[in-house]
Amino acid sequence: MRIIKATLAHLDLLNPLFVKYREYYGQLPYPDSSRSFLEKRLRLEESVIYLAFADDDVDDSKLLGFCQLYPSFSSLSLKRVWILNDIYVAEDARRMLVADHLMREAKKMAKETNAVRMRVSTSTDNQVAMKTYESMGFREDTEFKNYTLPINSD
Predict the structure, then answer these.
(1) In the chain, where the domains are located
(2) I need a surface site. Which of 65, 79, 96, 105 has the fewest CB within 10 A?
(3) Which residues belong to any copy of the N-acetyltransferase domain (predicted)?
(4) Reported pTM
């Protein structure tokens, strides 16, 4: 399996899988808005996106999965934190350890940027994701309780 860092040239390949990821979490597809969102993140270097391809896919025509990370910082440790915000594997590529390969690359990048940690969250009923994260060394946070504050965009 080959993992590469996405560029603007990968948008047309990435967008359909990103739309499926959004649909998985109950969002409407909005392919044009999704593409625009991804383009902006890449153009402004506001996120890092890794793409997974099969070794025999020499022309990178079939995307197996992706993960997107956002940078953050820890004031307590005075270091960078990476938020593994999005990870998705194409249905026909599941059980091929695609997520594991993507997370290994993300972890490598986190180490190279001297990050103190990576954070990830998932829906409370996504047992497969939880097991995968735990198998990669992620641990449930027992020190801090997280809250969200919804902000209306009206």
Answers:
(1) 2-135
(2) 79
(3) 1-154
(4) 0.93
How far is residue 94's CA from residue 96's CA, in Å, rounded to a whole number? 5
Taking only the tens of pLDDT, the chain with its 154 residues reads: 999 999 999 999 999 999 999 999 999 999 999 999 999 999 999 999 999 999 887 777 799 999 999 999 999 999 999 999 999 999 999 989 999 999 999 999 999 999 999 999 988 898 989 999 999 999 999 988 888 888 986 5
The answer to whether the CB of 99 falls within 8 A of the CB of 65 is yes
d(CA 58, CA 35): 24
Residue of 100, 38, 31 whose CA lies nearest to 65: 100
Residue 53 structure tokens: 């391809």
Residue with tokens 């001297």: 114
